[in-house]
């Protein structure tokens, strides 16, 4: 689970939560866990990162795609060709969803 906290409220989502981030190899989309793992463990060596993703049971973001994803989330890029705009609308949570999901305080995973 990944936990997002703001003003004493929390939203806890499974690592398998779908995102609109396309794999460049065309074999699907990365999960929320994939994105979180890369950001949280961006300094690991490629082999160690792949092992960590495997331990968590999530698709590992490829070394070739690492800079694209990190650049977007760290603010160096405003857009990414890896974000599928059509899929994005299917992965958005509404404010209603956020109010009705049980929240749990804590850190990611």
What does this structure look like?
By secondary structure, the protein is an alpha+beta fold. It is 40% helix and 17% strand. The chain has a domain at 22-85. It has helices at 32-40, 46-56, 63-73, 85-91, 95-100, and strands spanning 2-6, 9-13, 18-22, 29-31. Strands 1-2 form a two-stranded antiparallel ribbon. Strands 3-4 form a two-stranded antiparallel sheet. Mean pLDDT is 87; it is low at 103-109.
> What is the general shape?
globular
Strand count = 4
Quote the distance from N terminus to C terminus: 5 Å
Main sheet: strand order: 1-2
- SSE pattern: EEEEHHHHH
Quaternary arrangement of the chains shown? single chain
Strand count, sense and barrel status of the largest sheet are: 2 strands, antiparallel
Counting DSSP H or I runs of 4 or more residues, the number of helices is: 5
**What is the average per-residue confidence, as pLDDT, rounded to a whole number?**
87
Low-confidence stretches: 103-109
Estimated radius of gyration: 14 Å
SS-based class: alpha+beta
Estimate the strand proportion.
Answer: 15-25%
Helical percentage: 40-55%
